[in-house]
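Workshop exercise sheet. Pairs work together: one partner reads the sequence aloud, the other fills in the structure field after running the prediction. Swap roles for the next sheet.
Pair: D.N. / O.F.
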Amino acid sequence: MESLRVLLALAAAQDWEIHQMDVVSAYLLGELEEDAYLEAPDGLDILLGKVLKAVKGLPGLKQLGRT
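Structure field:
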């Protein structure tokens, strides 16, 4: 936290622009380039025995770091 305060003070003193980004949301919004299929969770009885195709990134996918 101290490093952040120093950087913000330096940016204010030098009249620099500051940009912010949300890395967690960036991972969740990434579109997958290859097909990824998941088993339906236990709570979805209507999809029992079927698989789901992931269109957006989900936590835990290996492909997520490349999106």
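Discussion prompt: The chain has one domain: 2-60. What would you look at next?
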